[in-house]
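seq:
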Amino acid sequence: MGIVHPIWNVLNHRIYSYLSGILSTYHNDIRLYNDGEHNQKTLVTNILNDKIMASQVQLKVAEINQLNPIMIADDSRVEQKFIQMYNAIWGTDMGAQIYEKEKFNFRKILQDSPMLQQCSKLSLYGCFLDIAVNGLSLDPTGRPHCYILPRNTKTGYKDQKGNDIYEQRAYLSITGYGELVMRQRAGQVRYVDNPVVCYEGDTFSPGLIEGKKTITYQAACPRKSNRVIGGFIRIVRADGTIDWSWMMEGDIKRLESYSLKNNLRWNPQTRQKEGKANSLYSSCEGGIDPGFLESKLIKHAFDGYPKVRTGKFTIFETQEETQEIDYGLDEPTEVPIEAQQALPPQPIDNLQGFGDQQAQMETSSTQGITVQISQEDDEAGF
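struct:
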């Protein structure tokens, strides 16, 4: 039996107040149908269904590939997806403001980097949405949280000669400062001191006393040399206990060797691999740049800490297992590794297999106890 019009008008205000609280954008949809008679359950169900359908922003991979790389973030569907994801993940209504800020940063980065413009459109789309997933910023000023970097990645296919086919893909690389923000927000640490860089002539002696890490440090004043010999950082955990992390010259050299290995590229003219390590490893009188070391100290200080959430398009040395995140694609982008290996030789496909990019990247992640060599260190992109 329908609700009589006068009674419904009395109840309408209460139902209106309740629904407008949880469905604020749909308060105008609470209205009378069929001369004042309407089934309340049907009305609420229709409103909820409309809300769900409106929130499902879906894009086809082919549609993403038609976008100009620099204008990907300007697409209205990408805008809606970014705002929706940011507000849902972080429980805020600041998604629109964050979108405008990061859209500017994203376009500026791509305009300044022709190499990034050559990356697959899907990887650029994923990097932009991962800004919302990670809750970080692409702002390059001060101490940047993350960068967008290009990388040659195996597609899982082979050419007619049986050689691996690579394509240029973009990925989001989180810096040590970005990781610090994420871990503080996750409640893993209470405070982290600024990293301390030690120079030749300083008193620097890390050690253990009754199982607890200790650091003995005294800077030489005036400084006797600009040659960096190591560094350390002090961390206050969430429970108030103190943790120390340090890097010695051997650790720095190890990271430099991984950077060199990752930057080697095959030169068909000389028929050999050529390349060099990140220049920041030798930019300060032949030694590592102090600011670069500070960032490395922060990143490696958290090697033994619990993993934190990142997006599927993000490279992070403490990457947790891939989570199911809705990127608004109405078709799968993942191709099982077994299926890829069984496929016959065929031309490059910029789209297939992208979901498995982390498993297929040429440099595999390594695990360590004291100083773990991360994906980002292999890339050494910042």
